[in-house]
From TrEMBL:
Biological role: Catalyzes the synthesis of 5,6-dihydrouridine (D), a modified base found in the D-loop of most tRNAs, via the reduction of the C5-C6 double bond in target uridines. Specifically modifies U16 in tRNAs.
Keyword RNA-binding set for record: yes
Protein family per UniProt: Belongs to the dus family.
Gene symbol of the encoding locus: dusC
MF term (GO), any: FMN binding
Lineage, top ranks: Bacteria, Pseudomonadati, Pseudomonadota, Gammaproteobacteria, Aeromonadales
CDD domains recorded: DUS_like_FMN
Record keywords, A-Z: Flavoprotein, FMN, NADP, Nucleotide-binding, Oxidoreductase, RNA-binding, tRNA processing, tRNA-binding
Organism of provenance: Ruminobacter amylophilus
Site (Interacts with tRNA): R38, N98, Y179, R275, K277, Y282
Domain DUS-like FMN-binding: 7-284
Name used for this protein in its record: tRNA-dihydrouridine(16) synthase
């Protein structure tokens, strides 16, 4: 089975408008999904959706034409459906309902993955949303295998299919699994894909061409969603689809600089600094040479100093040779949030 669609995942606080712009300049993702818009008991006006997903001001696409679906998170089926309709009227090319977010802050209000405990409510939310949305606006549902028991995926799946969703994105871990690499359970997607009832998208631990091929082999699902490693390898779509070589550390730093250039037109300096460090913390997953200058960057207090270091890396003025037995980046686990260890901004 060959690779089908490759989709850029929603990552709250990470994959925002500027980073979607940057990454879609290096990749031909079939579409992106926005960070979630949380809805509680109100129907937001269109200006809120256009503020949170600026691509809606440009026909729901990034500058290079990649579609951006709008993701909505909430607990009330009627409120979810009515907000989804607003998103569609604002120009969203697709809508995604988030029932998989593992954040404890989201769970306090019963949203995200906490909804996996209520399959019937998920089904009702899907039904109402599908009924309200125009027929030409696809509806996807992003879930995990369950809260704690991965066998719950089967009842959750049934409710979503009965609700009339157009596709299901399945992160192949439970909420309690978090992001542990050894907890990935691709095999739970396989019997669902074999039913051939609804398009599925496999998500979780797709890092490179080899893991993508393995995921497709195990799940029988050709569509993939990539998240953390889309930042670690800024050309990941081409690596998976075309067997391109992953970006080197210099090429990755050039991608970070491109991201900075986009941010400078949109965001205050303090935010630029924090996001630069965050992006680099992901790049370390695939390019441990970043550790040779990462901590120095995290100590800088203005963007100009950071820019100078990155320019030195790209120009070759900085030597990027790791010492023997360097263990700073020996394990990828936990490094997706490495910026929290080293960066104050």
């Amino acid at each position: 089975m060959s690779v089908g669609e490759i989709i850029l995942a929603p990552m709250e606080g990470v994959l925002d408008y500027p980073l979607r712009e940057a990454l879609t300049d290096y990749n031909r993702y079939d579409y992106c999904v926005s960070e979630f818009i949380r809805v509680t008991d109100v129907v937001f006006p269109g200006k809120v959706f256009r503020r949170e997903v600026p691509e809606l001001r440009h026909e729901g696409r990034t500058a290079n034409g990649t579609p951006v679906w709008v993701q909505i998170l909430g607990t009330d089926p009627d409120i979810l459906a009515r907000n989804a309709l607003v998103a569609a009227r604002c120009g969203a090319p697709g809508v995604d309902l988030n029932f998989g977010c593992p954040s404890k802050f989201v769970h306090r209000s019963g949203g995200g993955a906490a909804m996996l405990k209520k399959p019937a409510v998920i089904g009702e939310a899907v039904r109402r949303t599908r009924d309200l949305l125009p027929a030409d606006i696809p509806l996807s549902v992003k879930i995990r295998l369950g809260w704690e028991n991965p066998d719950d995926i089967f009842s959750i799946y049934e409710e979503i299919v009965r609700g009339g969703a157009d596709r299901i994105i399945i992160h192949a871990r439970t909420r309690m699994d978090g992001y542990k690499a050894d907890a990935i359970k691709w095999e739970y997607i396989t019997p669902l894909a074999d039913r051939n009832e609804i398009p599925l998208v496999a998500n979780g631990e797709v890092r490179d061409a080899a893991s993508a091929a393995k995921c497709i082999e195990v799940t029988h699902c050709s569509n993939l969603m990539v998240g953390r490693y889309a930042l670690a390898v800024p050309n990941l779509e081409g690596v998976i689809r075309n067997n391109d070589k992953p970006f080197t550390v210099v090429e990755s730093v050039k991608a970070v600089i491109h991201f900075i250039d986009i941010m400078k037109k949109l965001l205050p300096e303090q935010y630029q600094m924090a996001r630069t460090k965050q992006f680099l913390s992901y790049v370390r997953l695939s390019n441990p040479e970043v550790n040779l200058f990462f901590r120095e960057i995290c100590q800088k207090e203005n963007q100009a100093d950071i820019d100078r270091i990155l320019d030195d890396v790209v120009s070759g003025r900085r030597e990027l040779v790791l010492p023997q037995n360097d263990g700073v980046c020996a394990s990828a686990e936990g490094q997706a949030v490495a910026h929290e260890r080293y960066c104050k901004n």
